[in-house]
């Protein structure tokens, strides 16, 4: 999505409320006009002068109904005005061309299998990727000790897809020296890294390298080492 769900929902609901309020205002105005016409017609038939008209019980009821309806119209129009003032702000926050991106994934059969190969870990996040082992942990992350756990916190962004093609790329250096008979790439995939994950997986499979992956929540921190965290959970796909 190119705009948060909450904003799109708020904008849609505001538009719906505006449409409903507009209908209510028009209906209330019509009712008020009908009451006025009914009152005037009744008085015309009675052919009474103004002083006697004001004392008629029916006249008082009609006048009260008209006043009530006009007050309702005033309240509705005020509420409608507030929504109209809110609409530009919401429109400015939500692009007119927002859309949902869809991905089709084709997986060969078998889609899952166990492997005795050694996993070489990478993390995909924010449309970037970086190695997640050895010296690279210190390069891309800060490691904090909390009790008996080591929490790994990112402080440096990974490489874009274009950067992975450079000769100096950490991704390129590490994947080129992989032994496909003994090793496979294990990708830790955040929601924001799904697009680059698909591209990298396609590239690895084309080069005959097995790929395993594990989705991870956007806000979750990496505990200890990937080998400890994901041992036994990866399956080749």
Mind explaining what this structure looks like?
The strands form two sheets. A four-stranded mixed β-sheet has the order 2-1-5-6. The protein has a three-stranded antiparallel β-sheet with strand order 3-4-7. β1 and β2 (128-131) form a beta hairpin. With 237 residues, it is of the alpha/beta class. It has seven helices and seven strands. The two termini are 27 Å apart. It folds into two domains: 5-93; 118-230, Nucleotidyltransferase, domain 5, CATH 3.30.420. α1 (5-46) runs antiparallel to α3. It has helices spanning 5-46, 50-55, 57-93, 135-140, 170-176, 194-206, 226-230, and strands spanning 118-125, 128-131, 141-146, 149-154, 183-189, 211-215, 222-223.
Main features:
237 residues, alpha/beta, Nucleotidyltransferase, domain 5, four-stranded mixed β-sheet, 7 helices
What fraction, in percent, of the residue positions are helical? 40-55%
Strand proportion: 15-25%
Q: Pairing-aware structural class of the strands and helices?
A: alpha/beta
Model regions low in confidence, pLDDT < 50 over at least 5 residues:
231-237
Determine the N-to-C terminus distance: 27 Å
Shape: rod-shaped
Overall number of domains: 2
Could you give the topology of this structure?
Layout: H1 5-46, H2 50-55, H3 57-93, E1 118-125, E2 128-131, H4 135-140, E3 141-146, E4 149-154, H5 170-176, E5 183-189, H6 194-206, E6 211-215, E7 222-223, H7 226-230
Helix pairs in contact: 1-3
């Amino acid at each position: 999505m190119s705009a948060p769900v909450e904003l799109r929902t708020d904008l849609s609901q505001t538009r719906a409320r505006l449409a409903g309020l507009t209908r209510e205002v028009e209906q209330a105005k019509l009712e008020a006009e009908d009451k006025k016409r009914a009152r005037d017609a009744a008085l015309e038939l009675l052919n009474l002068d103004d002083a006697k008209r004001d004392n008629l019980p029916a006249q008082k009821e009609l006048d009260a109904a008209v006043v009530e309806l006009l007050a309702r119209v005033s309240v509705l129009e005020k509420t409608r005005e507030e929504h109209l003032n809110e609409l530009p702000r919401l429109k400015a926050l939500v692009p007119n061309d927002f859309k949902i991106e869809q991905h089709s994934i084709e997986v060969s059969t078998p889609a899952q299998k166990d492997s005795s190969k050694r996993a070489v870990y990478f993390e995909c996040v924010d449309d970037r990727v970086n190695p997640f082992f050895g010296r690279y942990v210190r390069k891309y992350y800060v490691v904090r000790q909390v009790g008996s756990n080591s929490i790994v916190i990112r402080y440096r962004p990974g490489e874009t897809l274009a950067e992975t093609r450079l000769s100096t790329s950490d991704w390129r250096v590490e994947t080129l020296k992989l032994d496909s008979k003994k090793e496979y790439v294990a990708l830790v995939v955040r929601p924001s890294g799904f697009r680059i994950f698909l591209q990298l997986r396609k590239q690895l499979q084309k080069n005959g390298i097995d790929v395993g992956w594990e989705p991870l929540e956007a806000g979750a921190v990496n505990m200890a080492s990937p080998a400890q965290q994901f041992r036994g959970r990866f399956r080749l796909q």
